[in-house]
Amino acid sequence: MRTLQDIHEEYNFLEGDERYRLLIELGRELDEMPDALKTESTLVRGCSAQVWVYPTGDMEKLHFLADSNAAITKGIVALVIAAVQDKPAPEVSQMDIAEALSPFDLKNQLSSNRTQGVPNMIALVKDHAARIATG
Q1: Over the stretch 114-125, which tens digit does the pLDDT of each residue have?
Q2: In the chain, what are the domains?
Q3: Fe-S metabolism associated domain location, by residue (predicted)?
């Protein structure tokens, strides 16, 4: 998976529909999430599309599987995951993920329907990291 910084450099260079294409491409690059993991317990509430996030890993290296039934939403999920993927749980639990995503200006680039679930995705990721970090 690309780093958030690498993604931002490319995103900044693009405009309009090209940014949508980049988001769709990022979604396709996510690790495949088996259908068996797409359950009510992994479903992120508050998203206009269906979004699933499944945490794995340990204190030293959190890893997330994620998917969505909408291509652009899946790209947004990929941005959230890129911010935290394979980082230590204590770091992720203290991280300001919303701030890390702020250079993408998603609220002004995308409709509110597409971004409304982002805070819930962030909360899920941080909660999992905090649980792991505190043992």
Answers
A1: 677 889 999 999
A2: 4-133 (3.90.1010.10)
A3: 15-127
**Rounded mean pLDDT, 12-37:** 94
What single-letter DSSP state applies at residue 31? Answer: P
Closest C-alpha to 97, from 78, 76, 122: 122
Token couple for 84 = 């935290």
Tell me which amino acid residue 102 is. Answer: S
Instruction: Name the DSSP class of 40.
Output: T
What distance in Å separates the CA atoms of residue 69 and residue 44, rounded to the nearest whole number?
Answer: 12
pLDDT score of 16: 84
Give the residue from 90, 87, 86, 81 showing the smallest Cα distance to 124.
Answer: 81
